[in-house]
């Protein structure tokens, strides 16, 4: 499917709208004839007559596309030359900032691209340049022509992405290989802080060409002899960070010891984040417990005896304000995201805790200023609920440790299983609750809350007033209790256990991968939240002190000039040979079994 779909048909609602370039009904009709003609056939004589009668060659459809967009997509250069001679604006974009050069570059129509460049078409725009369109559509010839015409290879779009980064993110290997050969920098960051080389290593490791990163030498030499070469080498080598190195280790199959060594500074940051949040939880828990202390004095705080309580409140408030400041800084960095995709899912757990803390402390503050038994009771209830979610939130900061990371992931995955269980349990619980309310009036079921709690105790096979139920109705008591016990305790609870077991098995099978992913999440959080930790390690340590890669090699082996391209062909041949061997073996076994019969 073409990335450019051409001029759009006019809707019924658009027939009454007037063209922006000409308000007269005659010119409107001529403009419509001009646009409609390009949807089917080009007749230059007819077009010359229409334009001579007053049609505007720059007329556009409802998306702002002119006839030049259609010509650059599907027609010859002569048609484009004709309309430029008639006064069409070559640089006029549509509503999305796309010009005719964008369309030709995206479709790799190199004759049209060359013609437009010869007529001074702009290669630098505010959103995405034609070079970006050519890169993300793998238009290799268009990339060559645009760069030859003066397009900037390091130009950035509205999210600070270079053409190489777009090609890497979308898996356009030919365009990425060409841009790297022409000197594109793979160490640049976009607005989200993602480096281009990370996408290159993860999606097209063969294109990265590790020979640009490591110095090859047959002799076993030390790092001192090539340290200068690596320091003055390609910019991609100097901008490797821990994220790219960890991806490269996964691709090249390096040992986990090296990865653990490289992640040591961020391990310190993970411990620091955990300790800070633990202190945050302890401070608010202590405040909540101190509020519940009964005093003879009507005042909630008696100074100077309660100075430590005031100190804990101030400490808890400062830690909360710091958490909100970090979130605000994170939100400001997201302002450059795509407008239609700028609504990421909020961290529900964090905001639930912040809202509960705000409500609890606000009620407590009002109770301190105007003591009231009712306000004091409300504050105690809010604090008791807040403390539970406060300590559950601490689990997100334990994800970085491999012992607990998969367990935390499992707890997140069982949420769907619990929701399915609750739906089935509710379907059974509601009708039985109505039946028990209609039939029985035992003391534990005098209120709605008492009824619901009694049925919940039946589900848990706990003590309930069965004798009182038999006294009221000896027929319905065993019928309702027996069927509800079977449906809720035997069916629903065992179904929940089966779902949780299946989820645990699936998560446990990928425990190592989940642990590494959780470590990566915490590493990014540490780098964003605690920039002071960056002074403890050097991002260029590996490129400066760990090069070249010392490995045993065979002197008889000749390095192929196109090693990365031929690696894929060699791998395909090996797989094909193995497949043929398996098929031949199966046929031979089948023939032997047939001959036995």
From TrEMBL:
This is Si:ch73-193i2.2. The keyword Cell membrane applies. It is a multi-pass membrane protein. The chain crosses the membrane at residues 268-287, 307-327, 348-366, 372-392, 429-456, 477-500. Residues 14-23 have a biased composition (Basic and acidic residues). Its main location: membrane. Residues 278-511 form the Ion transport domain. ANK repeats lie at residues 96-128, 126-158, 159-191. SMART domains: ANK. It is found in: Cell membrane. GO terms for cellular component: plasma membrane. It catalyses: Ca(2+)(in) = Ca(2+)(out). GO terms for biological process: calcium ion import across plasma membrane. Pfam families: Ank_2 (PF12796), Ion_trans (PF00520). InterPro entries: Ankyrin_rpt, Ankyrin_rpt-contain_sf, Ion_trans_dom, TRPV. One of its GO terms (molecular function) is calcium channel activity. The lineage of its organism: Eukaryota, Metazoa, Chordata, Craniata, Vertebrata. Keywords: ANK repeat, Calcium, Calcium channel, Calcium transport, Cell membrane, Ion channel, Ion transport, Membrane, Repeat, Transmembrane, Transmembrane helix, Transport. Residues 1-27 are annotated as: Disordered. PANTHER family: TRANSIENT RECEPTOR POTENTIAL CHANNEL PYREXIA, TRANSIENT RECEPTOR POTENTIAL ION CHANNEL PROTEIN.
């Amino acid at each position: 499917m073409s990335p450019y779909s051409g001029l759009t048909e006019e809707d019924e609602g658009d027939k009454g709208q007037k063209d922006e370039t000409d308000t007269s009904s005659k010119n409107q009709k001529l403009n419509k004839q001009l646009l409609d003609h390009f949807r089917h056939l080009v007749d230059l004589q007819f077009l010359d007559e229409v334009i001579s009668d007053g049609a505007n060659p720059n007329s556009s459809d409802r998306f702002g596309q002119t006839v030049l967009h259609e010509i650059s997509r599907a027609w010859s250069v002569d048609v484009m030359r004709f309309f430029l001679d008639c006064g069409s604006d070559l640089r006029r974009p549509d509503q999305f900032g796309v010009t005719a050069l964008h369309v030709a570059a995206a479709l790799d129509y190199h004759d049209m691209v060359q013609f437009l460049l010869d007529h001074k078409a702009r290669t630098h725009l505010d959103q995405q340049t034609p070079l970006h369109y050519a890169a993300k559509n793998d238009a290799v010839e268009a990339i060559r022509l645009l760069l030859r015409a003066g397009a900037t290879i390091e130009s950035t779009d509205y999210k600070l992405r270079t053409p190489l980064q777009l090609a890497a993110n979308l898996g356009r290997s030919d365009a990425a290989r060409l841009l790297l050969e022409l000197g594109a920098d793979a160490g640049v960051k976009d607005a989200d802080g993602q480096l281009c080389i990370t996408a290159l290593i993860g999606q097209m490791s063969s294109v990265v060409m590790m020979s640009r990163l490591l110095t090859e030498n047959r002799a076993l030499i030390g790092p001192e002899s090539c340290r200068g070469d690596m320091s003055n080498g390609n910019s991609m080598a100097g901008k490797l960070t821990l994220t790219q190195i960890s991806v490269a280790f996964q691709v090249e199959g390096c040992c986990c010891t090296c990865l653990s060594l490289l992640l040591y500074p961020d391990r310190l940051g993970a411990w620091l984040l955990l300790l800070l949040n633990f202190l945050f939880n302890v401070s608010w828990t202590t405040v909540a417990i101190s509020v519940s202390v009964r005093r003879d004095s009507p005042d909630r705080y008696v100074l100077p005896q309660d100075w430590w309580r005031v100190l804990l409140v101030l400490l808890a408030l400062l830690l909360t304000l710091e958490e909100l400041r970090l979130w605000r800084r994170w939100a400001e960095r997201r302002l450059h995201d795509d407008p239609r995709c700028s609504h990421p899912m909020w961290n529900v757990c964090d905001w639930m805790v912040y809202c509960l803390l705000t409500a609890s402390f606000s009620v407590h503050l009002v109770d301190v200023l105007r003591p009231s038994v009712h306000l004091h009771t409300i504050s105690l209830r809010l604090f008791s609920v807040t403390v539970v979610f406060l300590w559950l939130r601490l689990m997100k900061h334990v994800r970085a440790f491999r012992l607990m990371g998969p367990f935390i992931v499992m707890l997140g995955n069982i949420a769907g299983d619990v929701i399915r269980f609750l739906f089935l349990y509710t379907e059974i619980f509601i009708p039985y609750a109505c039946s028990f309310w209609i039939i029985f009036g035992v003391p534990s079921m005098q209120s709605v809350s008492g009824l619901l709690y009694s049925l919940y105790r039946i589900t848990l096979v706990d003590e309930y007033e069965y004798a009182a139920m038999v006294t009221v109705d000896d027929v319905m008591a065993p019928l309702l209790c027996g069927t509800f016990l079977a449906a809720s305790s035997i069916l629903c609870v065992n179904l929940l256990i089966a779902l949780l077991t299946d989820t645990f098995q699936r998560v446990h099978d990928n425990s190592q991968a989940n642990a590494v992913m959780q470590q990566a999440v915490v590493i990014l959080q540490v780098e964003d939240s605690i920039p002071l930790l960056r002074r403890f390690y050097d991002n260029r340590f590996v490129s400066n002190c760990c090069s070249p890669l010392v490995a045993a090699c065979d002197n008889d082996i000749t390095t192929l000039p196109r090693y990365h391209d031929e690696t894929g062909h060699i791998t395909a041949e090996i797989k094909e040979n193995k497949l043929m061997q398996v098929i031949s073996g199966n046929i031979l076994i089948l023939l032997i079994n047939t001959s036995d019969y």
